[in-house]
């Protein structure tokens, strides 16, 4: 059991590493932690732990039976739907309570209550971002919807019913280590968790970095470095698709191209915490016309942070209204990605820019009035009291404007040098929304019309919503509440002194890009740009390219597809980015000028099969060599650039050099001579070899050893983490496993008469490190193996796969 190394570590360690990677002194006395009656020993479960129970709760209207299978997946059978959510809340709390509370405390800007003032900047940032404001606005919508309100009420009641059963000895180990106790759950906490996911998936922005780049580079150079559409783009909705004329005629303000940009403009304030730019996913569905069984197959693997406990919790929910199986979020009711008796559904991140900054002109330092549309307009000042463990409260004041909260001002600069300007945040996540409605409706959807009706409730984060049905339909909608923008709007910080730069409306649902039973017999998305040039609205510049290219290439060529083929494809390690970029290196490196060691690594690069498999050395050589190539091309131009500043995407250099070996940025402007591409490529490779020799000496030249994928405990405790996993893949690859980020749930569903489904995530059902179910899926996930999903029927309660039964009644 993993509890043993943990206990040994706890006995000799005086610090923890928290989510901010900062050391924190243990709060609980060591003697109490090791107490046999109340300490960590109480969290060690025996291998034959019995989870059976007969429980009574007056909140239930009927009876609920839960069958826990040999993977600790609960199969919930309820006579009344809201009772099912009560029990789901109880189970989420039983197995994941600490994780749920950590995430919602973080979302609310309350981490300092737990870990002390090391989290103060984080808390101030999230409060100034308006996370609670956003959650409260969502709750107003939920309160208007009796179905979702009842669902949330029941789910919350289930969590609190479990919390009330907890004794000190049974508290999750993290509470004991950090010296605090759980508080009651609320519907607002569920809304906060969903807003935390909005931050993770729709909280990225490059406004400050792009503004500095626009100011620093000439217009011609800027367009070369940051093209709005990539040459190699294979969009989600295929090129050539005809779109209706836009119903919103977006008016670009006069002078918008020159507004805010000048030779002396440098914007310093940017967010400390940014979501991983690669937060995304793959999903695709193939028509029965391309499958061996004649039934559609739907596949999804969301790419998110790899943590223990996992973001996901596998579950089956069966009620008289629906029977759904898939993964849920501990912290929210229902099945999020999965399938029911009629259809399957999945998501990838839409990647649209729905978060813009506006410079605010305050009348004075009191921030009570700001200049807007030729008059002084009053702000709403919100007092934020941040409690700090072991220290006095910190009082912050956030000014709210017509755009939204002022995130950066003289009082808060995001922990960076300030330019003494003030910036308000306009973010779709602040708007009223009811995202739980989409999952409620998808869990019971029976056809394309049901899916379409459900999808329109997805507000923020915008997602590519995938659908397949047993009647043969497949579909994909690029769904969300997306602002209708003029070209360039939102790429840069905008003036906030009048309404001309505000959003002029949201793209109507009837005009979102979608596909329904296309002629090519598949739909897919991999976070690439949704459309090409023909779409009438501006969708921004920053999208990945290469996973979309290889997904569409493979699906186009495949016929007689089986579920096994789809599992193999989800774990495929082919590097299409290297396929396009390696020829640039090999063509331009002057081999005659290389030494013996350098030629050795060049041969590894030449002989590489373009697969980022576990033991491949060529993958490491390529990554280091291409990285040095990018530095050699761009670093001289960026040497005097203001910070922070945006850098080009990987595909920009590849596409530029394939078109023009005399690409403007090849020459090193810091030297008197004019360098050619062979000069730059050879020098870059020589630098790469210096680094590669060090890597090889450390025994890390093989790809998995170099990449070092791990699934870390949320507190970054080494004994509770799984590190150095033997898994290939990486950035630009379908199997997108990076260091601590990648496929967080792999699912393949064949919608034949009897559904055939497979799934796996890098974790385990139980968040307790002292349980054998804590990380028991990790090795199979790393090896590309899947669990065959069992959609249980009530008649199968005597099946040998059932290990424990929990009975709930009133």
What is the percentage of strand-forming residues? 15-25%
Give the overall average pLDDT. Answer: 92
Order of strands across the widest beta sheet?
Answer: 3-31-4-5-9-10-11-12-20-21-23
- From the N-terminal CA to the C-terminal CA, the straight-line distance is 36 Å
Oligomer: single chain
| Large-scale geometry | globular
- Into which percent range does the helicity of residues fall? 25-40%
Q: Tell me the structural class.
A: alpha+beta
Number of helices: 22
The total of beta strands comes to: 31
The main sheet comes to: 11 strands, mixed
Low-confidence stretches: 1-25, 34-39
How big is the Rg? 27 Å
Give an overview of the whole structure.
With 810 residues, the protein is α+β, with helices and mostly antiparallel strands. 31% of the residues lie in helices and 19% in strands. The strands form seven sheets. It has an eleven-stranded mixed beta sheet with strand order 3-31-4-5-9-10-11-12-20-21-23, covered by helices on one side. Strands 6, 7, 24, 27, 28, 29 and 30 form a seven-stranded antiparallel beta sheet that branches. The chain has a four-stranded mixed beta sheet with strand order 18-19-13-22, with no helix packed on it. Helix 3 packs across helix 9. The radius of gyration is 27 Å and the shape is globular. It starts with a helix and ends with a strand.
């Amino acid at each position: 059991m993993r509890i043993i190394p943990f206990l040994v570590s706890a006995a000799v360690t005086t610090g923890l590493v928290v989510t901010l990677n900062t050391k924190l002194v243990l709060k609980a006395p060591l003697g109490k932690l090791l107490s046999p009656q109340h300490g960590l020993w109480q969290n060690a479960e025996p291998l034959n732990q019995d989870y059976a129970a007969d429980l009574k709760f007056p909140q239930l209207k009927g009876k609920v039976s839960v069958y826990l299978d040999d993977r600790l997946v609960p199969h919930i059978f309820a006579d009344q739907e809201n009772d099912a959510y009560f029990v789901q809340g109880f189970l989420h709390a039983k197995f994941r309570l600490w994780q749920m509370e950590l995430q919602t405390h973080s979302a609310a800007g309350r981490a300092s209550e737990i870990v002390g003032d090391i989290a103060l900047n984080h808390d101030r940032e999230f409060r100034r971002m308006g996370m609670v404001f956003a959650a409260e606005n969502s709750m107003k919508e939920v309160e208007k919807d009796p179905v979702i309100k009842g669902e949330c009420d029941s789910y919350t009641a289930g969590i609190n019913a479990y919390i009330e059963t907890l004794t000190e000895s049974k508290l999750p180990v993290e509470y004991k280590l950090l010296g605090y106790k759980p508080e009651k759950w609320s519907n607002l906490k569920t809304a906060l968790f969903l807003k935390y996911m909005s931050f993770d998936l729709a909280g990225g922005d490059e406004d400050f970095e792009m503004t500095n780049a626009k100011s620093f580079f000439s217009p011609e150079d800027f367009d070369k470095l940051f093209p709005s559409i990539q040459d190699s783009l294979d969009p989600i909705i295929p090129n050539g698709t005809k779109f209706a004329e836009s119903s919103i005629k977006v008016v670009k303000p006069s002078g918008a191209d020159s507004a805010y940009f000048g030779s002396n403009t440098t914007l310093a304030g940017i967010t400390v915490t940014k979501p991983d730019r690669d937060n995304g996913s793959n999903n695709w569905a193939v028509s029965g016309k391309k499958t061996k069984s004649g039934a559609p197959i739907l596949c999804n693997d969301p790419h998110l942070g790899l943590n223990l406990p996992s973001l996901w919790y596998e579950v089956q929910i069966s009620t008289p209204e629906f029977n759904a199986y898939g993964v849920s979020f501990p912290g929210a009711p229902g099945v999020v990605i999965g399938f029911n008796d009629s259809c399957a559904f999945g998501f990838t991140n839409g990647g649209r820019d729905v978060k813009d900054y506006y410079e605010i002109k305050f009348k004075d330092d009191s921030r009570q009035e700001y200049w807007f549309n030729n008059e002084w307009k009053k702000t709403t000042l919100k007092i934020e009291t941040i409690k700090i463990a072991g220290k006095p409260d910190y009082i912050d004041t956030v000014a709210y404007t017509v755009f939204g909260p002022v995130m950066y001002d003289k009082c808060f600069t995001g922990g960076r040098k300030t330019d003494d300007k003030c910036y308000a945040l306009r973010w779709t996540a602040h708007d009223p929304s009811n995202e739980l409605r989409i999952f409620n409706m998808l869990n019971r959807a029976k056809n394309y019309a049901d899916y379409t009706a459900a999808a329109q409730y997805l507000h923020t984060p915008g997602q590519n919503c995938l659908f397949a049905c047993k009647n043969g339909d497949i579909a994909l909608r690029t769904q969300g509440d997306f602002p209708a923008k003029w070209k360039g709007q939102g790429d840069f910080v905008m003036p906030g002194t009048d309404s001309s730069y505000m959003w002029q409306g949201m793209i109507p649902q009837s005009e979102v890009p979608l596909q329904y039973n296309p002629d090519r017999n598949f739909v897919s998305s991999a976070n690439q740009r949704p459309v090409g040039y023909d779409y009438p609205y501006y969708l921004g510049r920053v999208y990945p390219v290469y996973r979309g290219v290889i997904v569409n290439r493979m699906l186009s060529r495949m016929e007689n597809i089986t579920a096994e083929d789809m599992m193999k494809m989800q774990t495929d390690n082919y590097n299409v980015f290297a396929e396009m970029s390696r020829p640039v290196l090999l063509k331009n490196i002057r081999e005659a000028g290389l030494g013996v060691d350098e030629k050795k690594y060049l041969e590894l690069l030449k002989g590489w099969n373009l697969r980022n498999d576990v033991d491949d050395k060529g993958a490491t050589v390529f990554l280091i060599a291409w990285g040095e190539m990018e530095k050699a091309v761009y670093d001289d131009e960026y040497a005097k650039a203001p910070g922070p500043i945006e850098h080009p995407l990987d595909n920009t250099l590849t596409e530029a050099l394939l078109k023009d070996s005399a690409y403007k940025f090849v020459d090193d402007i810091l030297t008197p001579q004019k360098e050619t591409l062979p000069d730059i490529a050879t020098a870059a490779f020589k630098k790469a070899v210096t680094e590669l020799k060090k890597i090889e000496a450390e025994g890390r030249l093989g790809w998995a050893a170099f990449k070092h994928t791990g699934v870390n405990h949320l507190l970054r405790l080494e004994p509770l983490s799984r590190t150095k996993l033997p898994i290939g893949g990486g950035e630009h690859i379908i199997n997108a496993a990076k260091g601590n980020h990648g496929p967080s749930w792999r699912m393949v569903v064949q919608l034949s008469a009897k559904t055939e489904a497979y799934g796996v995530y890098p974790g385990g059902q139980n968040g307790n490190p002292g349980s054998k179910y804590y990380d028991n899926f990790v090795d199979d996930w790393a090896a590309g193996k899947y669990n065959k999903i069992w959609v249980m029927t009530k008649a199968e309660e005597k099946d040998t796969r059932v290990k424990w039964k929990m009975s709930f009644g009133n």
